[in-house]
Amino acid sequence: MTRPRLSRKPALVRLLSVAAVFSIILIAIQSSFFTGSWTPVNLDIPILSHFQSNLQQCVANRGLGLTAHIIDHCNVILKFPQGTNSTWYNEQFKIFEPLEYKYDVCEAILLWEQYRNMTTVLTREYLDSRPDGWFDYAAKRIAQLGADKCYNQTLCEEHLNLTLPAKPPFHPRQFRRCAVVGNSGDLLKTQFGEEIDSHDAVIRDNEAPVNEKYAKHVGLKRDFRLVVRGAAGNMIKILNGSDDEVLIIKSVIHRDFNAMIKKIRNPVYLFQGIVLRRGAKGTGMKSIELALSMCDIVDIYGFTVDPGYTEWTRYFSTPRKGHNPLQGRAYYQLLECLGVIRIHSPMRAKRKQDWSDVPSQEMISNAHRAALHLKKKQAGEEGGLGQFVNCKVWGKSGPYGTGPVSGSTDMTDTRKDSNYNRWEIMPFESLRKEARKHYMQMEGVSLYKMDGNKLDDLVCVKHPLKSEA
Ligand SMILES: *[C@@H]1O[C@H](CO)[C@@H](O)[C@H](O)[C@H]1NC(C)=O
Ligand SMILES: *[C@@H]1O[C@H](CO)[C@@H](O)[C@H](O)[C@H]1NC(C)=O
Ligand SMILES: *[C@@H]1O[C@H](CO)[C@@H](O)[C@H](O)[C@H]1NC(C)=O
Ligand SMILES: *[C@@H]1O[C@H](CO)[C@@H](O)[C@H](O)[C@H]1NC(C)=O
Ligand SMILES: *[C@@H]1O[C@H](CO)[C@@H](O)[C@H](O)[C@H]1NC(C)=O
Fold it and tell me: What membrane topology does this protein have (predicted)?
């Protein structure tokens, strides 16, 4: 007789303690709003734990069978159901793909939230600011240079000038909604074309064709395209006269690419931050990084994220082998439940567009602050949690809207009237309100990664604000 009561009591206690944690969090959030600083009470762990259980629920709701298992306030394991067909064989490690993936959610929040404030295009101001930027780093971005350093800077400038803007041509928060379109063959199972085209900007990958034949599956709008060095040969065919599409090279530049660029009118830049080794393999991650550095909401299409997938396919060619779908699937699901991306796929196509179980920007900001605070405390560095906490190197540049735009002075006739100016000399006043606000909040500072995936080694370049100019 007493048994049910006994079991009810702890439940009530648990409920009360959950409520208590909630109200502590609320109070903390409010007081940090008013004082602008963190309260002395250490709430980092309750805030992160709350974020974790939200993540767990989100994975359960959206993961199509994936489950999240909490280890502590930072670490989580994403598990595929027993019996999942893990058919991709890793030749290198002689194993089938594992069914479990461990992630440090605190690190992931810090890393991916940082991208929202980042510049991901290589600029002249970056090379000028970074120690040995020209001598060392520039040389790494040029293939067939014949030397491992830029002993002759003029020579390196000759290679890079065509693709090197003076300062960032794009801005954090420039667009509200962006679509990142992968190349997966399962795009042919859906008709996302119109939905994709309704975005403020569309980012595509390598040689993905855009034409009437595939329009209903992948749309027709083209704004950005990330390409690797090998793509130079057939680029002109892929672009098919679309002069506006911005090309962003996510590898190195070389003579052939420069020769090709001289024949087209499209703006071309180099991606900054390509030394990467992260959860999911493949080129899709860089498209997401690029998107986050410009867009509030990132919708992904054509990534292989559904269960029961057997092989690497592309929507425009015959299937090939050699991809690792489980690792990618788990990581993309983590990113969705961290509020980084929104996944669209055949198995999610009929789902109501309800994102209520994905954390809000406010919740992410709080978790971000807690993760940063905790990390600094563990490293024995108190204080200084402002937006420049990770700036290792500082540089200076001219005010927004002045200085040379892209390209060298000896542009070909084709390129002389190219479409660079659509973005590069866009007046500050024409930027979206959120982008202008961010620029002012950042005091005109652009953040760049020094090396691929490191969090706390940024190159920060200060631009005088209009009034100081
Ligand atoms: C697992 O996938 C392989 C390759 O696609 C297939 O041959 C096999 O039948 C699948 N096994 C199960 C149990 O679905
Ligand atoms: C540096 O490179 C430029 C351009 O290729 C060349 O004209 C110049 O002679 C080179 N300078 C030296 C010292 O080799
Ligand atoms: C590269 O461009 C910069 C800025 O426009 C210019 O000062 C420099 O002379 C150019 N270098 C070469 C080798 O063309
Ligand atoms: C190139 O674009 C035109 C229309 O702009 C289209 O008719 C043609 O099919 C396209 N060619 C290829 C190879 O996609
Ligand atoms: C990002 O920028 C915002 C201002 O728009 C700033 O408040 C925030 O601290 C920055 N976050 C990071 C991680 O740099």
Answer: Single-pass type II membrane protein
Higher-pLDDT residue of 204, 234: 204
Mean pLDDT of the chain: 83
Q: Is the CB of 146 under 6 A from ligand 2?
A: no
Domain boundaries, the chain: 119-346+387-469
- Find the helix packing angle between 361-378 and 105-115, rounded to 10°: 120
- For the Cβ of 128 lying below 6 angstroms from any atom of ligand 3, the answer is no
Q: Is the CB of 155 under 6 A from ligand 2?
A: yes
* Pocket lining: 85 vs ligand 1, CB cutoff 6 Å: yes
Measured by CA distance, the residue closest to atom 3 of ligand 2 is: 155
- Ligand 1 centre to CA of 82 (Å) is 14
Percent of the chain with pLDDT over 90: 49
State whether the beta carbon of 53 lies less than 6 angstroms from ligand 4: no
pTM for the whole structure: 0.87
Taking alpha carbons only, the member of 468, 466, 458, 397 closest to residue 111 is: 458
- pLDDT higher than 60, residue 46: yes
The CATH code for residues 119-346+387-469 is 3.90.1480
421: CB partners within 8 A, 6+ apart: 405
> Cα–Cα distances in Å, from 320 out to 76, 184, 232, 328, 374?
33, 11, 22, 17, 44
Contact 382, 376 (CB under 8 A): yes
- Given a cut of 60, whether residue 30 has pLDDT beyond it is no
Contacts of 92 (CB under 8 A, 6+ apart): none
Q: Which ligand is nearest to the CA of 316?
A: 4
